[in-house]
């Protein structure tokens, strides 16, 4: 299978870190209670997710579950990896405060370097990276202090940080968008309407399929949450090689596809 724009450091990755869901995922944070996830079904959907990444040519390391942290399957939130170097973040949710420290040993093992945000709050779910820019949206988990601390770190790794507006009703910036190729994003109409995607082409999700926006692009494929047929068709028509994956349980705790991996490329790996 091949699709548009297989190249570009924002969409090509040799490796990923994921974390298996814990049984405590039933206590995962959620803005609205639509029932707790079923831990066994979550594990099955997570296994399909890992298989989807592997089928795209990514070598995936699945870290052990952390029962003390119900939301720790969402490994994207406590760290950002740019060009193989990890930045340990400080997400805002109090129940998740220890996750970054718990993740750090794995980052030290797998990444080419580990930096610390140091102050303020930044949640990886508020960050969308293109080949040369790091777009960051403010939210309950990301504040101006954190963005100020992140800016020089990102700069030193060869990216330019841009602060974008996230409408208050949107939980995290990337809840409603995902990069499709280095020049194109998938976004909900309400996020696109804020004008935050300057310089990028925008494909909008279909009405009622807003949850499809949190798609991920990897090695010529676009992984999209299953159950959003009109948006999936829109992407296929635009030339993307779409793979649909079930995310019914992650959705119950406000998670999506992008939240469950930290992606990077190892120097020298194909
Ligand atoms: C939380 O509220 O922190 C988790 N239940 C969901 C985190 C989702 N992560 C993300 O959007 N990047």
Using brief descriptors, characterize the structure shown:
270 residues; alpha/beta; L-arginine/glycine Amidinotransferase, Chain A; three-stranded mixed beta sheet; 15 strands; globular; binds citrulline
CA-atom Rg in angstroms: 17 Å
Distance between the termini: 18 Å
Shape: globular
| SSE topology string | EHEEEHEEEHEEEHEEEHEHE
Count up the domains: 1
Bound molecules: citrulline
Q: The biggest beta sheet, please?
A: 3 strands, mixed
Q: Work out the number of β strands.
A: 15
Residue-averaged pLDDT: 95
Indicate the CATH topology.
L-arginine/glycine Amidinotransferase, Chain A
Second-tier CATH architecture: 5-stranded Propeller
Give the oligomeric state of the chains in this entry, treating copies of one chain as homo and distinct chains as hetero: single chain
How many helices? The count is 6
CATH class: Alpha Beta
Task: Give helix % range.
Answer: 10-25%
Low-confidence stretches: none
Structural class: alpha/beta
User: Biggest sheet: strands side by side, in what order?
Assistant: 2-1-15
- Report the sheet-strand fraction: 15-25%
